[in-house]
């Protein structure tokens, strides 16, 4: 009995000590609810830090855009207050700072804008030549091009006897043509997606005609030179950007336009007769003046695409040119007769593709192939039927090499060399363009 009485106080004391230790341990460990609150607050803090850094970047970009627009309106460069970098706002501890140069940022907004423009200058110049550049408000382009065309053919007038001997006249015909074209173009950037273009060409042509067999002798060659100059066919077109360049998708531009027959038409020209045979048949005649236009209204539609893949720039285009019939007072090449009628040029499909390499912010080199397929033309005398003109179809393939160099912030020099790959294409063309952005 005494043993039971002594054990009870000891057990009670042990239980009290165990309860106290358990209470102390529970006091040291945080409640599960408090841990969840801390994690939520830390997540909110991290989110606010990231949003704050992003807003700082956006503020800098908006500041640069505002200064650039102000300088564009005043026509002056945005002033730089100091060459030292602007003071940065203090960010909370652990907040990632906005990168100063990852997006082309410089010590000031003006310098950053200029660096960004220079880094894309080569790309913009290539786009200006291949499709359209919608970021430029107004551009005046002066261009001068020279084309050389030389075609020889052998004509036989007779028959083959005994399968080996030719009886008749053998004549060699040669046509050498030189064309110098000055083109004045204006490009208006109506909106970030629409551009209007006006092209006014002026042509100076010289053509030398040579014909063998003059006077009935195969060794005799007659030669005559004719010239012509004047305004060419004026063109008006519009470029509409369907899709901007995003990821793997290229920038796609739709082009529609029309060409007016403002140049001298090749129909109804006065002809000069150089030689007739005994039966008064015209053997050799040439036009007194060279034409400077096609003589008919034309409409065109096309698509062009440009994709940047640093340091390369890929581009391609495809389109169709439709010619409308037109009546003329005389469509006969015989100077002794006058036959009014209608002329309808065949439709033309054109396509091309190439690549340009931007060596630096000023210089780029391009190489491309272009081809133009033209169907046969048709003529119809008054109250007659349409007849196809044999030999009027053409396939003009050209290999093009070009160098683009930025002279300054507003002016670019573009040089192009075209090498004819088919008989219907000019032997070579050489062109120089100087676009000037206002």
From TrEMBL:
Biased region (Low complexity) positions are 90-107
Q: Which residues form a coiled coil?
A: 38-72
Which parts of this chain are annotated as the region Disordered? 76-107
Residues of the signal peptide:
1-27
Q: Which UniProt keywords apply?
A: Coiled coil, Signal
Q: What is this protein called?
A: Transporter
């Amino acid at each position: 009995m005494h043993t039971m009485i002594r054990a009870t106080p000891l057990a009670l004391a042990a239980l009290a000590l165990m309860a106290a230790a358990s209470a102390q341990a529970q006091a040291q460990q945080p409640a599960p609810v408090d841990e969840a609150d801390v994690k939520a607050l830390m997540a909110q803090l991290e989110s606010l830090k990231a949003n704050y850094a992003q807003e700082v970047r956006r503020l800098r970009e908006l500041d640069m855009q505002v200064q650039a627009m102000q300088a564009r309106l005043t026509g002056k460069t945005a002033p730089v207050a100091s060459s030292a970098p602007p003071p940065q706002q203090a960010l909370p501890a652990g907040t990632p700072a906005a990168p100063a140069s990852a997006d082309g940022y410089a010590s000031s907004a003006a310098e950053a804008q200029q660096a960004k423009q220079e880094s894309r200058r080569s790309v913009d110049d290539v786009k200006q030549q291949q499709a359209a550049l919608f970021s430029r408000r107004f551009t005046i382009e002066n261009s001068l091009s020279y084309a050389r065309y030389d075609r020889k053919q052998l004509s036989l007038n007779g028959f083959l006897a005994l399968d080996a001997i030719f009886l008749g006249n053998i004549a060699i015909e040669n046509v050498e043509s030189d064309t110098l074209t000055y083109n004045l173009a204006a490009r208006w950037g109506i909106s970030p997606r629409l551009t209007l273009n006006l092209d006014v060409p002026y042509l100076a042509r010289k053509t030398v005609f040579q014909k063998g067999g003059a006077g009935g002798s195969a060794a005799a060659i007659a030669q005559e030179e004719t010239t012509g100059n004047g305004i060419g066919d004026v063109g008006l077109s519009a470029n509409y950007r369907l899709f901007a360049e995003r990821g793997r998708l290229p920038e796609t531009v739709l082009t529609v336009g029309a060409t007016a027959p403002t140049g001298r038409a090749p129909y109804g020209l006065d002809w000069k007769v150089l030689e007739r045979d005994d039966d008064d048949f015209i053997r050799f005649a040439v036009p007194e003046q060279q034409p400077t236009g096609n003589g008919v209204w034309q409409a065109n539609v096309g698509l062009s695409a440009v994709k940047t893949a640093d340091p390369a720039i890929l581009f391609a285009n495809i389109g169709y040119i439709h010619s409308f019939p037109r009546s003329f007072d005389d469509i006969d090449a015989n100077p002794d007769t006058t036959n009014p009628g209608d002329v309808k040029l065949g439709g033309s499909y054109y396509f091309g593709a190439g690549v340009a390499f931007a060596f630096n912010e000023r210089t780029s080199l391009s190489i491309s192939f272009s081809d133009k397929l033209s169907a046969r033309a048709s003529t119809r005398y008054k109250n007659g039927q349409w007849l196809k003109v044999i030999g009027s179809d053409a396939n003009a393939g050209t290999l093009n090499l070009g160098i683009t160099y930025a002279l300054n912030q507003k002016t670019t020099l573009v040089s192009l060399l075209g090498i004819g790959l088919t008989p219907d294409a000019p032997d070579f063309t050489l062109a120089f363009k100087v676009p000037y952005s206002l």
